[in-house]
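For practice. Any example?
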Amino acid sequence: MSKAKVLIADDEDYIRKLVKNVLESDNMQVIQAENGSDALSIIRNQAVDLIILDIVMDDFNGYDVLGKTRAMGIYTPIIFLSGKKEDTDQIIGFGLGADAYITKPFSPSVLCAQVKNHIKRYRELIELKDTYTKLTQGPFLFNLKSYTFYKNGAEVPLSSKEALLMKFFMENPNQVFSKEQLYQNVWKETVIDDNTIMVYIRHLRMKIEDNPEKPKHIQTVWGIGYRFAVD
């Protein structure tokens, strides 16, 4: 797992250094911002795993930074670290979408535990989301949201029917399907057109095989049909 990257935005230098030291001692990378503007600039330009925000800062306060971050469609976990201890302050923070609220003075070890826990949950959520939005087989990836297809990280343009056929193959690797089964599952028709199947198979081989004349992935199973083979 890659090293977690945390942004700490606080106008008090000693707080930033304290947080930096405790998190870096637990093998995390820490980026510092001394005000809300700097924090927003960092958030816009690079991905972080978690954001720690003070509320009272010179320009944009922590509430503003949180609101603008969520408005950008960024749902990175955010922890408020603030000297404001009133229940109303915490209610506002959670209402805006904060994941935790820690008051100053604080325990560095407790803060570190909170940070690790939220990062772990966030990464698990992203991994779960990717499971439902992407198919991966061997060197191939199919994005189910955009219906885009990749080989070794490079996009391979497919027509709509080619994409549907490739999606079906990737959902059913190493299984043999007759032309009838392919036509029924991809074209959703029962009247079989052998020539159509052969044309699309040939087109896919030209696009995804290293040697279309000796296909490694879309294999012909003589007398039966085709199989999508992956290592």
Remarks:
- The chain is about 45% helix and 20% strand.
- The first strand starts at residue 5 and ends at 9.
